[in-house]
Amino acid sequence: MLEQNEREILDRVHAGLCIGGKWEPLTTEQTIDVQDPATGQIIKSISDATVDDAARALDAAAAAQSDWAATPSRQRSNILRRAFDLLIERKEDFALLMSMEMGKPIAEAHGEVAYGAEFLRWFSEEAVRVRGDYRANPEGTGTVVVSHIPVGPTYFITPWNFPLAMATRKIAPALAAGCTVVIKPAELTPLTTIFFAQLLAEAGLPAGVVNVVPTSNAAAQSSALLADPRLRKLSFTGSTPVGVKLMEAAAKNVLRTSMELGGNAPFIVFEDADLEQAVEGVLLAKFRNIGQACTAANRVIVHESIADEFVDRVSARVAAMSIGRGAHEGNDIGALINKAAVDSTARLVTDAVETGARVVTGGQPLDGPGHFFAPTVIDHLNPRAAMLREEIFGPVLGIIRFSTEHEAVEIANNTEYGLVSYVFTENIHRGHRMIERLETGMMGLNTGIVSNAAAPFGGVKHSGIGREGGFEGIHEFLSTKYTMIPR
Ligand code: NAD
């Protein structure tokens, strides 16, 4: 049963598509039924966009592109800043909506609103700071002028695990750069993106600049849009296998791409670490979002001399975690996104045990309704355990022990992924060595959280291409143009 305030927020979310600045009525013959993963209850039905709807959304984005690119950057900046202020004003509503459709604990949903909003503020500041360059050619016969122009209409595909932040991390820099947008949120969690698009309109965003087309047929929508000559860019956040398919399709249309893909983060605790800090760090890096984060610590690699104490301290904290519906205050662990997520987590735990690991706490799915899995600590992972290779995406912390620094680095780099690594050491020289040796796009040195709007988020290897946030973020949506002016 939904609470009164929950129903009120759901009623304020439009059920129809947002195309060309209009909110269309709900199409009743084809809907997406959004569920609360903690109860299985359908909380809202919304329009399921067809391929034709997506084409209309791109029509609108293409039609709005030149005016939006020509809009003074100060005006674009002001709209982003107003959107930031409105989002902060409505943080309670967004946090509750996200928690209802995705299952994350309400306290974490508040954290995501703060993080997601920060991209609006950061890129409102970056919008007016795009610089060019002016140089003489070496022959002395001319001037080289370098400027940056908007890439053009963009297509965004976002995942379900951070429904707000994954949208603002793309939309804010695109708008700052002068690009228009068609966005397809994950079909499991489309409500937050729709609600955010409503907020953008209130902030003064012109019609057609952002269009929202949730669909249950992502493959059909993406192949049609990626083949359209008017589209100039794809930005995707999601799993690596889907990302690879999308890159193949994007290649045929020579599209710019930004790909934020899967992770398999190593979390290394050296014998010289501050153990209490490492325990706090791993709890954050592992259990935030119920383990469903691309940045989640997937392989906890602990020096053998401190491993017993580390396991004792971590498992005492994990065993005390409270489990329940995320939207209710006070729960540390909410429901996983669906049954498939519970099954996949259970499969990885069973495999770990069968290959010789020991469950210290948790280890089981919990009775329904809803898709809950007990927060789990597993020790003595065998190097063959599947969870060392695959993203766990559940509240399971698996520990593997090491004896030398070289061995720790070998284990950490033994993956096709390269999103983020975490290192805990009090030795500054060792810390520096790890920055150079770990093959990841980001690193947390004595911290379990790296996400920050001012920093370039992104991976290497199969974790992706491109960066979101930081000074780099806006350049994903700008093309370099050079003009030769003879003397
Ligand atoms: P997913 O790849 O299944 O889905 C992501 C998005 O792609 C969804 O919107 C989905 O509808 C869409 N999609 C699925 N198949 C598609 C297809 N054939 N064509 C076009 N679109 C398609 O991933 P998920 O399960 O939603 O999200 C979890 C994954 O996302 C994990 O691998 C996680 O590591 C990754 N992720 C990465 C980052 C990052 O910044 N690197 C952030 C969050 C999540």
- Tell me, what's the shape? globular
Structural class: alpha/beta
On the 0 to 100 scale, the average pLDDT is 98
Ligands (ions, cofactors included): nicotinamide-adenine-dinucleotide
Give the end-to-end Cα distance, rounded to a whole number of Å.
74 Å
The low-pLDDT segments are none
Radius of gyration over all CA atoms, rounded: 23 Å
Helix content: 25-40%
Q: Beta-strand level of the residues, as a percent range? A: 15-25%
Tally of DSSP β-strands: 20
Biggest sheet, spatial arrangement of strands:
14-15-16-13-12-17-18
Strand count, sense and barrel status of the largest sheet are: 7 strands, mixed
Please sum up the structure shown.
The protein has 487 residues and is an alpha/beta fold. Helix content is 39%, strand content 20%. It starts with a helix and ends with a strand.
